[in-house]
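Re: that backbone. Tokens:
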């Protein structure tokens, strides 16, 4: 059995591989495709479903089973999560990965990572709480 995890995070696939051990071979979508796994839905479920759909369509179009030598079942696994801060009424929530883009007025400077911008904005909003 093979599992294609709809993630660009190879570490996530490795963690899942450690859990399932020899029951399945686990692959990270990002190791095969540069397609963006969209997180543009209003719910965690919606984001996970979107990522699963993108990975499944890619797997079928590119005959994933042949790429990895899969002669039996393969599954698509997707998830979504976020940081929910009580003092911010649950924000950033489902928008955690794109918090800086959702909130108006953030400016990307060269060398800034999305995580750094998100963290900076979160700390700014928590100042004085």
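Recovered sequence:
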């Amino acid at each position: 059995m093979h599992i294609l995890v709809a993630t660009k995070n190879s570490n996530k696939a490795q963690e899942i591989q450690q859990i399932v051990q020899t029951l399945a071979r686990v692959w990270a979508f990002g190791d095969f495709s540069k397609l963006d796994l969209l997180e543009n839905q209003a719910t965690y479920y919606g984001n996970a479903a979107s990522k699963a759909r993108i990975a499944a369509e890619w797997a079928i179009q590119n005959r994933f089973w042949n790429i990895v030598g899969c002669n039996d079942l393969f599954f698509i696994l997707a998830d979504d999560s976020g940081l929910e801060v009580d003092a911010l009424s649950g924000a950033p929530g489902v928008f955690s990965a794109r918090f800086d883009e959702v909130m108006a007025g953030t400016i990307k400077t060269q060398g800034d990572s999305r995580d750094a911008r998100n963290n900076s904005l979160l700390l700014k909003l928590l100042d004085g709480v």
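Helices lie at 10-20, 44-61, 64-67, 99-102, 114-126. Residues 83-126 form one domain.
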